[in-house]
Amino acid sequence: MRKHESTPQFDNPIVNFQSLANYLPIVYSSVKTTDDSTMRFIPAVILTALLGVVYWIGATIFTDRIERDIAQRSNQAVATLPDVNINVDGRDVTLIGNVNTQSERSEAKQLVDSVWGVRASQNELNVFKTFKLRASNNEIEGLKIEGTIDRRNSISELKQTLKPLSPEINLDFGARPMVNSAEKLQIGTGNLLLLNHGELTIDNAELVLSGLAADETVRSMIETNLIEKHAMLAPLDVIANIDVASSLTQACRTKLDTVLDQNTVLFEFDQHDILDEQKINIEQFSDLLHECPGSLLIEAHADHDGSEKYNLLLSKKRAQAVTDILLENGIDLSRIESFFYGETRPIASNESESERSYNRRVELQYVQPSAPNQLQQATIISSQSTE
Q1: Residues 198, 241 contacting (CB under 8 angstroms)
Q2: Tell me: the pLDDT tens digits for 33-83?
Q3: Euclidean distance between the first and final Cα of the chain, in Å?
Q4: What are the boundaries of each domain within the chain?
């Protein structure tokens, strides 16, 4: 792309054309020859060359002005997409940068194509992936971490820190950058390792740590850690659902270990019926609730196909379908709490059918008899700022 540098000496092309024309007699008179044919030929050559120079200067000036005008109006057109940048070459525009979804990528090109004067546009925008990390730790399988985060360097740093534990790490990168993401991962996994067994999830909205602590001292230590690190964890909501191991029987702990990695029920497109192979996961949680005190948290979701209102209703139907199976298996309704989020909490990008299938889901979470401890990040910041 040309640099948009000012050229004040050619601000008025017409004046400069006249100035250049004034030089023609001088140039002509400087040519001394006795050959009449040569005398007739040389002025024509000089005039042609000078006119070419004048044309080039004028074209450069006006092209520069056109590029600046198109760049300004194109940037205004995509002002609602802050990570989109515009490059202009003549009347051709190239879009570079990042957007959240494929629809935003298409929208950006349409906005630029609608700008008057744009001849063609090339879309080189990158679509961010969804930030979603899930980690689990137990005596049988050890530490497992999977999902998509923002930076490749964060993966390397995490692997180096956890290297002595030989964890199973399957992480991708390319999600929208998160403030202090590496520190958030270190804090989350560090506290997860303090639990006898547990699960950690981190997305763009919250950090959730759940599991079983050896005793009250460990649970208190984890909660204190999360509170002290609230500035580094901001702006995420931090939820700690941690119980003490002594409050559960060995049978409960064994069953809990079994169901931890089988807590997701998937659905066919636009359906809320439970497939036979998915009922097994729900029935395992029913067995857990029959054996152990506590309750079950149901969180239902949908992909982004369809309207937001429709998907919210669809996720509600999915939550109810899971609840119905639990009731059929003898679980009291008072021990079931359900939430439905529609399309607002994807764990995959929704760009392909295989990815959307992961978003059509219900997640089951066993809640220990003790009340969950919710540390709302915004509240902590507010309380400390008034001290």
Answers
A1: no
A2: 445 555 555 566 666 666 666 555 655 556 788 888 888 999 999 998 888
A3: 54
A4: 46-127, 132-245, 249-367
- How many whole angstroms from its chain centre is CA 159? 22
Report the b/e string of 80-103 with b at 16+ CB within 10 A: ebebbbbebeeeebbbeebbebee
Q: What six digits make up the tokens of 275?
A: 């497939």
CATH tag for 249-367 (out of 3.40.50.150, 3.30.360.10, 3.40.50.1970, 3.30.1330.60): 3.30.1330.60
pTM strictly above 0.70 = no
Q: Which of 292, 300, 330 is nearest to 212 (CA)?
A: 292
Residue 143 has which token pair? 């530490």
The sign of the torsion formed by the CA atoms of 241, 244, 245, 247 equals negative
Can you tell me the distance from the alpha carbon of 181 to that of 199, in angstroms, rounded to the nearest whole number?
A: 18
Cβ atoms of 338 and 323 closer than 8 Å: yes
CB-based contacts of 23: which residues, under 8 Å, 6+ apart? 50
pLDDT tens digits along 288-329: 898 888 889 999 999 999 999 999 999 999 999 999 999 999
Residue with tokens 């995509």: 78
**Backbone phi, then psi, for 226, in 5-degree steps?**
-65, -35
Pairing of strands 197-203, 132-138: antiparallel
CATH 3.40.50.1950 fits 46-127, yes or no: no
Which CATH fold topology does 132-245 show? hypothetical protein tt1634 (3.40.1520)
132-245 and 249-367 share one fold? no
Provide the CA 234 distance to its chain's centre, in angstroms.
17
Distance CA 57, CA 67 (A): 16
> What sign does the dihedral 259-261-262-263 (CA atoms) show?
positive
How confident is the model over 213-237, as pLDDT tens digits? Answer: 888 889 889 999 999 998 899 999 9
